[in-house]
């Protein structure tokens, strides 16, 4: 498979919408303008990440399709995991939803559960992006 920017855009928009629905809507009051700004920023973030992932993954020979998908998945999921890890490592206290996730530079059990949830969300989003990008193109029909 070769690099296709249209597939990158489709995957980035789909993943950004899912990310917005998963993260912004359930945990915060719904305000249209900040939510729209969040969605646009997520779309730009995922556009860059998926573009890099697709560019690198499509350099692998097509005969190793599983390797292309694995490299793509790893490149899409890694930035979210690294940013979560760096945030939790560098903050001295963090509370969300009435639960302390970090106290005295140590991650609490609730914080660890939150990190695992972020890992699951990042993996789900990377899987959706991979499915959209590597979806088979429809073949033209002959009449």
The topology string of helices and strands comes to HHHEEEH
Write down the domain tally. 1
Helix content: 55-70%
Helix/strand class = mainly alpha
Main beta sheet: 3 strands, antiparallel
Distance between the termini: 27 Å
Low-confidence stretches: none
Q: How would you describe the oligomerization state of the chains in this entry? A: single chain
Number of strands: 3
Secondary structure tally, helices: 4
Q: Strand percentage, roughly?
A: 5-15%
Mean pLDDT across all amino acids: 84
**Largest sheet, spatial ordering of strands:** 1-2-3
CA gyration radius, whole angstroms = 18 Å
Question: Which shape, going by the Cα principal axes?
Answer: globular
Structure in words:
- The structure is a single chain.
- This protein is mainly alpha-helical.
- The protein has one domain.
- It is built from four helices and three strands.
- A three-stranded antiparallel sheet has the order 1-2-3.
- The longest helix has 26 residues, at 32-57.
